[in-house]
């Protein structure tokens, strides 16, 4: 099984950025744990702070991977184009957010991604990525 993990803006700063909200672990360290936990999965990881690059990556992997786990970061609330890209591909996308966006600022309660994703996992920290992998494995 091949799963792409696509992270959006500022997620390259995990472990440094607002540890009270996002934790103190880097995503690279967390990804190594996922790889060890799921040896049957071939992971592809991509992160960008640029909206168009995220869309390009969705289109690149969106027809030949078994699943995509995407945390669009702040683009969740602003990018109709990322939502449209998810709707245009055939690979199921699970939306993941580390923090509970519904308990934060009012503008974060809007998602242009949720309606296009197979499902959303919100507010469970990095554990949300693991839960997304589990769902994709069961969906098979």
Give the N-terminus to C-terminus distance in angstroms: 8 Å
Number of strands: 5
Number of helices: 5
Q: Could you describe the largest sheet, including whether it forms a barrel? A: 5 strands, parallel
Helical percent range? 25-40%
SSE series: EHHEHEHEEH
List low-confidence stretches.
none
Task: Please report which band the strand proportion falls in: under 5%, 5-15%, 15-25%, 25-35%, 35-45% or over 45%.
Answer: 15-25%
CA gyration radius, whole angstroms: 14 Å
Question: Given the helix and strand composition, which structural class is it?
Answer: alpha/beta
Mass-distribution shape: globular
Mean pLDDT: 92
Sheet with most strands: strand arrangement = 2-1-3-4-5
Please, could you describe this protein's structure?
The chain is an alpha/beta fold and 140 residues long. Helix content is 34%, strand content 19%. It contains 5 helices and 5 strands; from the N terminus they run E-H-H-E-H-E-H-E-E-H. Strands 2-1-3-4-5 form a 5-stranded parallel beta sheet, sandwiched between helices. Helix 4 links the parallel strand 3 and strand 4. The model has no long low-confidence stretch (mean pLDDT 92).
